[in-house]
Amino acid sequence: MPRSGIPGIVIRRLPLYLRCLTLLAERGEDVVSSGELGAYVGVSPALVRKDLSYFGEFGKQGLGYKVAFLRDSLMGILQTDRDWPVILVGAGPLGHALMHYEPFQRWRYQIVAVFDRDPAKISQPIDDLTVQPMEDMALVIEKRRIMVAILAVPAPHAQNVAEELVACGIRAILNYAPAHLVLPSHVRAAYIAPVISLQGMTYYL
Amino acid sequence: MPRSGIPGIVIRRLPLYLRCLTLLAERGEDVVSSGELGAYVGVSPALVRKDLSYFGEFGKQGLGYKVAFLRDSLMGILQTDRDWPVILVGAGPLGHALMHYEPFQRWRYQIVAVFDRDPAKISQPIDDLTVQPMEDMALVIEKRRIMVAILAVPAPHAQNVAEELVACGIRAILNYAPAHLVLPSHVRAAYIAPVISLQGMTYYL
Known about the structure:
The structure is a homodimer of 205-residue chains.
Chain A: H1 8-26, E1 31-32, H2 34-41, H3 45-53, E2 59-60, E3 64-66, H4 67-77, E4 84-89, H5 93-99, H6 102-106, E5 109-116, E6 125-126, E7 129-133, H7 137-143, E8 148-151, H8 155-168, E9 172-175, E10 188-191, H9 194-202
Parallel strand pairs in A: 4-5, 4-8, 5-7, 8-9, 9-10
Antiparallel strand pairs in A: 1-3, 2-3, 6-7
């Protein structure tokens, strides 16, 4: 089945299955049931089986899934078995924290360049890197064949910067700015929106 | 209708409508159509109308919604028209960045205390606050009637700390740790999971 033929909601659950499988493998578990996977992700065992059936035959009825095999299969499907060089735009406090965010490295998303518009930040060291001016973006993206960018700029700049990124060839944007992005259909965006999450919870309190 | 009777998926879209309305109000717009709201949130105009109809009559067919009125109504419904004191657990680089995260303040989620387990961090200043030992949590939560916590600890500690928070009376956890939390049903959790988001995008590249 072509990549575009599988529902997006299924794709978005795969990383959660993968996280569960990784944890189980670290604990030395050999086998996991669709019920256990479903409990972790918050879906029914039947839905786990249906989700995974899009990609092949991973388990036998009543025997569960082999943890390491399913983990490795999902890593291949999600393409997390390769390095993804990533650029970061925005060298403020959040950008600094993201440079130190261990899960990015662990999952092979490596921030290889940092950009900012602020002259006071440009040329400053940030970990092993040096903050570069936005004008350098196009060259770095092309030279290092970057497809993924992390956006950590103030909300009012997010759309403009995203458009620059797209013009440079970026195809996936992880957006930390509290702003909706309007992007061409070939570009994917995901939003980190803690206030939205908080508001969805405080409604109930 | 009781709060628990409205589907969670509807509740989770309300903050997105609110963000759109806030933006439109800042731009001086008076009226917005369900089509415009839907385009921002990524749902159909019909779904916008259905979502909002759970909460009252906000607009008239063909005339659209009054921006300021709908914004204020949603703020009331989501309880974002009041202050929410919040505690932060984890004073690492991410915790520091969250202390400076302007949208929290703007939306009246104010971090009023920071806790960490690391003796090297305890008693260190962090903005206007001082990092406190975890043992102080119960007293602070009770005294200041805190219901919301932000969790920014390493993944292996997340479940234990979450359980401590729940034992202290916390009812909503915004979890930045890349770990699934198992919590009692009266406690809500939301996950900030950038790796999960990245993996859901890099699948397509």
